[in-house]
Amino acid sequence: MVPEVVFSFDSDEAGLKAAMDSIPVALKAGLEVKVLVVPKGKDPDEFIRNEGTDAFKKLIAQAASGMDFQIEITLERNNFSTLEGKVKTVSNILPFLLECKSDIEVVRRIRNLAQKLTIDENLIVNEFKKIRRGNGIAVSDALMRRKKEENKVNPVEQAERHLLFALINGGGKVTSDFLAEIDNMGFGDVKRTEIYQKFKDLSARKSPNIVADLFAELSETYASELEVILQLDLAVNAASQILNDCIRQLKISGLEKQYEYHSRLASEYQLAGDEKYLQELAESQRIKNEIKKIFL
Fold first, then answer.
1. What angle (nearest 5°) sits at the alpha carbon of residue 30, between those of residues 27 and 34?
2. Got the DSSP string for 228-269?
3. In angstroms, rounded to a whole number, what is the distance separating the alpha carbons of residues 153 and 161?
4. Closest CA to 279 of 258, 265, 260
5. Which long-range contacts (CB under 8 A, 24 or more apart) does 43-52 make?
6. Is residue 38 packed enough to be buried (19+ CB in 10 Å), middle (13-18) or exposed (0-12)?
7. SS3 for 145?
């Protein structure tokens, strides 16, 4: 278990500076770092005397990670309403990300930063690559290239990924009937099934940040699949159309599999002289008609 340190300095400017200076030292020493901010500008001693030790223990449990604290303080201290301010803010924050434990965490934090600053995520990725190279750290192109080529995937796998992309980027605003339709079809991969189930759970809990919460709750293997999905070069504002197109494609794919199955059974029964082949032929024709309806 990695040793953990919780910093609790005074809430004035000197205390914040002390925390910002102490975090990188502790991280380089291999410690897990959290920062406790005492509310209402009080110092820790005053808070304990006024509120009690139990209240202070609650603050410890709610302490932010060292990196979250660094980023939030930097955002508060920078005016990023202008392009120049955004560039300065990115330059101040990116060095913190060198302490991330994995490329998955790096990409997640870059995505959150891009959303807060309303700038192109790819620009931040490119700047982070420069910093990494300058520090002698190898860049993992498999995760860090924003517009990387999609691996060769079959149409069903692609449709499932597109479906999840649209669900997640739609902010969870999907009707229960629509989700029931997806439940009925299911997913052909355990990773995408788990991502979908977590998405439904977070939507039901009205998560304010589904992407961040998904990364927090998924294992690293499933988070890697989520990263592939979120990096798809699709229009976020077309999420509704993507959902409908994917549902349609997955329906057709499922029906085509059923058609092949019953057609094969019909052939086998007919060769064996079994009259069940007529029943299978009728079922094959019914499925074929269903496929035609979707294309109409």
1. 50
2. HHHTS---GGGHHHHHHHHHHHHHHHHHHHHHHHHHHHHHHH
3. 10
4. 265
5. 43/10, 43/11, 43/15, 44/8, 44/9, 44/10
6. buried
7. coil
Domains identified in the chain and CATH numbers: 1-66 (3.40.1360.10), 78-146 (no CATH), 149-296 (1.10.860)
Contact 280, 258 (CB under 8 A): no
**H helices present in the chain, as ranges:** 13-28, 44-51, 53-61, 66-77, 83-93, 103-117, 121-134, 141-144, 155-169, 176-185, 190-204, 210-217, 220-230, 239-271, 276-295
At 68-108, the pLDDT tens digits run 999 999 999 988 888 888 889 999 999 999 888 777 788 88
Q: What is the pLDDT of residues 239-296, one digit of tens each?
A: 777 878 888 888 888 888 888 999 999 899 888 888 888 998 999 899 888 888 876 6
DSSP helix/strand/coil, 51: helix
- Sign, CA dihedral 97-102-105-107, equals positive
